[in-house]
Backbone:
């Protein structure tokens, strides 16, 4: 992570480095969901800013992505010209390289530009990994434990 100083105080700077930490429960598949609502990059044709919400969903294997490094990584695209499709796949590729997850999905929902909304979804599944079947549990009515 790079730091600079403003008024003598260190400040974080954008970086392409993604840090990780050990998965705290490698014996269980669990779903991590993140929302990054302030993603920005530049249109490679006009240089105008593009804004998106990035959704990250993954099932970790050995490591998880560290949040501050993810924030600084996302910030690193702010001054780059990127097509929506390319930046979504780049984010997925970089996160896969850093974490080697069992499953990962990056969904980029770009705000309207020229009357068009763009949503790009890119996925990765580790070879041989299969999700467990979803278990649907009965929903209890509200106040079902109150006698009346």
Residues:
């Amino acid at each position: 992570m790079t730091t600079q100083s403003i008024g003598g105080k260190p400040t974080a700077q954008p970086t392409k480095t993604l840090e990780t930490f050990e998965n705290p429960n490698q014996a269980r598949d669990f779903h991590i969901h993140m929302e990054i609502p302030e993603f920005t990059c530049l249109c490679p044709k006009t240089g105008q800013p593009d804004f998106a919400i990035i959704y990250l969903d993954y099932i970790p294997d050995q490591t998880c992505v560290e949040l501050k490094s993810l924030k600084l990584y996302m910030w690193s695209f702010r001054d780059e010209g990127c097509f929506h499709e390319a930046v979504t796949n780049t984010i997925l590729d970089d996160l896969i390289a850093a974490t080697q997850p069992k499953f990962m999905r990056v969904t980029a929902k770009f705000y309207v530009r020229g009357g068009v909304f763009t949503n790009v979804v890119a996925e990765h599944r580790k070879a041989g990994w299969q999700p467990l079947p979803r278990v649907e549990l009965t929903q209890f009515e509200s106040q079902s434990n109150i006698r009346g």
Observations:
- The helical segments are 67-75, 84-99.
